[in-house]
Amino acid sequence: MRTIQHDQRDKRVRRSLLALALALVVGALAAGCGGEALQSGIAPDPAWLDVVDATAAVDAVDATAAVDAVDATATVDAVDATTRAEEQVFAAWLTSRVQLQDPTPFGSSWAEQTTTTLALVRVRWHGDVGERWVQPCALHTTPSFGSKLSYPSAFLAAVPVEAAEIRRDGAGWSQADVVEHVGMTGDGTADMPKNGEAKHPALVDHDGDGKPGVTLGVEIPLFGAQKLYVAQRTVTAWSGEVDADGVVSAEPTITSEQATVGATLDLLLTTPKQKPVASGPAHTLRWHPLSTPIGCATLVAESKTHVGQTWPP
After folding, report:
1. For 283, which of 6, 63, 177, 196 is 20 to 30 Å away at the CA?
2. Cα separation, 38 vs 153, whole angstroms
3. C-alpha pair distances (Å), 171 with each of 128, 250, 281, 284
4. What is the pLDDT of residues 254-275, one digit of tens each?
5. What is the rounded CA–CA span in Å between residue 291 and residue 298?
6. Is 22 helix (H, G, I), strand (E, B) or coil?
7. pLDDT at 150
8. Which residues pair with residue 175 across a beta bridge?
9. Are 277 and 97 in contact (CB under 8 A)?
10. Cis, peptide link before residue 221, omega less than 30° from 0
11. Is the CB of residue 35 less than 8 Å from the CB of residue 217?
């Protein structure tokens, strides 16, 4: 008698779990499964590109022709020769690896996920201390448990491109901690919002789409195309070396805090469980020198030429 009761109870539990799972799927369908997918895009050209172009153009003019065409004193006044010699531009390739846990209700397995950033970098030296600007041009994240992230052009355009200090000591180059905020204020005093906290006072609609934070796209099995509204704070530091070809290589230290403050599907208001990769560096960075300045669209189309890797990776 007791065994029959246990069996009946187990069946009722299994039926309840199945009903819950079906309710979640039906609720997701009603909430907008199969909406318009956001495609990964390309950022606009960095604001400093015209500055570097102008400097390169002056460098390219033959000195004798310049004297014939323009008064030499005026030329020197317009562009200082020392400053021109210390302007550098690079194409950057950054990879970040992490292990994520299967987010399904009974999932326990882990899988590695890699995010790659293709960027343009400008460096302006004043002796051995300089300023660097980094413009992310495109991002790509490998799918995880069937889900795929996308980074619209508006998201990339919203990433702040601010000057940060860089130093060199012979072949050694380094950057101390640089804090970057996306989708929230960058005054350094605000706490991170919590998941689902769409009214947090620190949130900023950086991509201008009327939603809190910045918007990412995600495609999920069963649920289709959805949107995430996120805020993120990242701290990056690195030290590396420049080789004989002018390529800078480093293994950065990157810590990142992210909150999903809103989504088209409430089930997405969670923080994925993650842990460091089992072996190898979590982050690798390479800056490849460019002989002439280029824009983001050119870098993406010609990534094999400039960084030795095709895009998307």
Report:
1. 196
2. 10
3. 11, 12, 21, 18
4. 999 999 999 999 888 887 888 9
5. 14
6. helix
7. 97
8. 238
9. yes
10. no
11. no
Radius of gyration (Cα) for the chain, nearest Å?
25
Ranges of residues in the chain with a pLDDT under 70 are: 1-35, 53-85, 188-189
Query: How remote is the C-alpha of 166 from its chain's centroid?
Result: 20
| DSSP secondary structure letters along 79-105 | S-HHHHHTEEEEEEEEEEEEEEE--ST
Residues 6+ apart with CB under 8 A from 16: none
pLDDT of residue 196: 96
**Res 65: pLDDT:** 45
Amino acid residing at 5:
Q
Bridge-based pairing state of the strands 110-126 and 164-169: unpaired
Q: How many CA atoms lie within 13 A of 307 on its CB side?
A: 29
* Arithmetic mean of pLDDT over the chain: 83
Task: Tally Cβ neighbours within 10 Å of residue 87.
Answer: 18
Helix (H) or strand (E) holding 169: strand 164-169
Residue type, 179: V
The two structure tokens encoding residue 201? 């006072």
